[in-house]
Specification:
Blueprint lengths: L3 E6 L5 E5 H7 L1 E4 L6 H12 L4 E6 L7 H5 L2 E4 L5 H14 L3 E4 L5 H16 L9 E5 L2 H4 L9 H17 L5 E7 L7 H4 L4 E4 L5 H10 L8 H4 L5 E6 L3 E9 L21 H9 L18 H14 L10 H17 L8 H14 L9 H12 L11 H6 L5 H16 L6 H8 L4 H13 L4 E4 L5 E5 L4 E2 L7
Parallel strand pairs: 3-8, 3-9, 4-6, 4-7, 5-6, 7-8
Antiparallel strand pairs: 1-2, 1-11, 9-10, 10-11, 12-13, 13-14
Pfam families: DUF87
InterPro entries: ATPase_Atu1862_pred, HerA-like, HerA_central, P-loop_NTPase
Keywords: ATP-binding, Nucleotide-binding
């Protein structure tokens, strides 16, 4: 299941959607000078995806707290709480899947960075059972992931940068999809920006920022000038979740606004200078009255109760019971997607199992239908091109290889598939790829190990072509070059 978020119109008037499921897997970077419409873009994305996915917003200026009035986001004013309480809020948020706005307004830069670091780290460190999909929006990301030393202590800078790096580099395995917005690409740490696969570039004027934006969009440097000419609220978009080629999007209207509103001209008061002087100095002779004390912040316990109350009002829907055939098809589809990922070859099964769990949650299957051991064997079979019929057509082959290590099962099944279908004998390169290595020597040693267990017999004819036979099954591959 997927969901298309309507972001606006392209130059031809056609709607341009963002694929929410793809966005969860590939992350987003938004860039534009002050006044280019970044906050408007983020608000459009959040409003149109509200109710489809949990939303967690780190808001340095308090612009997004108004989302709570219409969409039920819990606003947390970080200045009223300790760092430890903010971290506890984050853990509770992941447990109850509550959409929140962490309002950092009122804190100095060091306080904002310290608070955001604790909050993001707690989101990242949540128990595995709470790894539900969530959009994590960080506005003014250059504050929390600076490219160079900020005017804060080194300890705070490292903590904040480390938390942002975890969000963008490793958050996907935990269901966290980072969406970061910045005014200056040159001020944002490169290792954080580089992890985004989707880009929305708004108006910018400095040459260094235009050059980086053009590089990310795959444009030539001479084409970067058009970024300077973009109208307010228009962004160049590129990425698997939105478009395979750069496309200009005019962001659509939103239903909520910031607390301060946008700048606009209003008439000056119609009064004479003498009258204004009287107004200005009217109270100077009166005694100065002390300002009323600020309202007391709600205790942390009441915020916890609010989070739980929102979760109770909008509970996590019951996971639908799926029939075995549908569940088996979902597992096959998820495994195909993992095997099709070019980066998965070099990743161990334990790491890919986390990816498997997240992908299953994204299609509404929780808990994961395979345990780590079963997943390892299904992954090995998938790398050999076998996704279905493991309990039927391939039952004999699996039973024969039951004592093989999981990482070698895929190589045996690769040969078994070729032998059963009369295809050419797999090359050393194909065996190496299935095994997850680039070493042909290691691939030959794997085949030798399997052959030593009397599961395979290798024969090389006078022309140098190799064939393999599985004696117990009577299956033999067609001869082929071993290289």
């Amino acid at each position: 299941m997927t969901f298309q978020v309507d972001m606006g119109l392209d130059a031809g008037g056609a709607p341009v959607p963002i694929d929410l499921e793809e966005l969860l897997a590939t992350r987003l970077l938004v860039q534009g000078n002050s006044g280019s419409g970044k906050s408007h873009l983020l608000r459009r994305l959040l409003e149109r995806s509200a109710g489809q996915v949990q939303q967690i917003i780190i808001d340095p200026e308090g612009d997004f707290v108004t989302l709570g009035e219409r969409y039920g986001h819990v606003a947390i004013t970080a200045a009223d709480y300790s760092v430890a309480e903010v971290a506890r809020f984050a853990a509770r948020i992941r447990e109850h899947r509550t959409s929140v706005v962490l309002d950092l307004e009122g804190l100095e830069m060091e306080g904002q960075m310290r608070c955001a670091a604790a909050f993001l780290s707690a989101l990242f460190d949540a128990p595995r059972d709470h790894w539900f999909p969530a959009l994590v929006v960080v506005d003014e990301a250059q504050v929390f992931a600076p490219s160079m030393g900020a005017e804060v202590t080194e300890e705070v800078r490292r903590a904040s940068l480390g938390a942002m790096t975890n969000l963008m580099c490793r958050g996907r395995k935990r269901g966290l999809a980072g969406i970061i917005a910045t005014q200056r690409l040159a001020k944002l740490a490169k290792n954080v920006a580089a992890e985004a696969s989707n880009f929305l570039m708004g108006r910018t004027f400095l040459d260094i920022d235009m050059a980086r934006a053009a590089d990310l969009l795959g444009m030539e440097r001479r084409q970067a000038e058009q970024i300077r000419d973009l109208a307010r609220g228009t962004f160049l978009a590129l990425g698997p979740a939105v478009s395979r080629r750069p496309v200009a999007i005019r962001i659509g209207a939103v239903e909520t606004g910031s607390r301060g509103g946008g700048p606009a001209l209003i008439p000056l008061p119609d009064a004479q200078a003498s009258d204004m002087r009287q107004f200005l100095f009217a109270e100077m002779e009166e005694p100065v009255r002390p300002a009323p004390p600020p309202p007391r912040a709600a205790p942390a316990e009441s915020v916890f109760a609010q989070i739980e109350t929102v979760a109770a009002l909008d509970p996590v829907p019951e996971v639908p019971q799926r029939d075995p055939e549908e569940l088996a098809q979902i597992v096959c589809d998820v495994l195909r997607a993992i095997v099709a990922d070019a980066d998965s070859t070099a990743r161990p099964a334990a790491v890919l199992y986390q990816d498997f769990q997240v992908r299953c949650r994204m299609v509404g299957v929780y808990p994961a239908p395979l345990d780590p051991s079963a997943f390892s064997r299904r992954l090995a079979a998938g790398r050999a091109g076998i996704f279905e019929g493991l309990d039927g057509d391939w039952g004999e082959a699996l039973a024969l290889a039951r004592d093989l290590p999981d990482e070698m099962l895929g190589c045996f099944l690769l040969v078994a598939k070729a032998a059963r279908e009369g295809l050419p004998c797999p090359s050393d390169e194909a065996v190496a790829q299935t095994y997850g290595t680039s070493s042909l020597g290691r691939a030959r040693r794997v085949i030798g190990y399997i052959e030593g267990r009397n599961l395979l017999v290798t024969r090389t004819d006078l022309s140098g072509k190799r064939s393999m036979t599985i004696p117990a099954l009577g299956w033999t591959t067609a001869p082929a070059d071993a290289g």
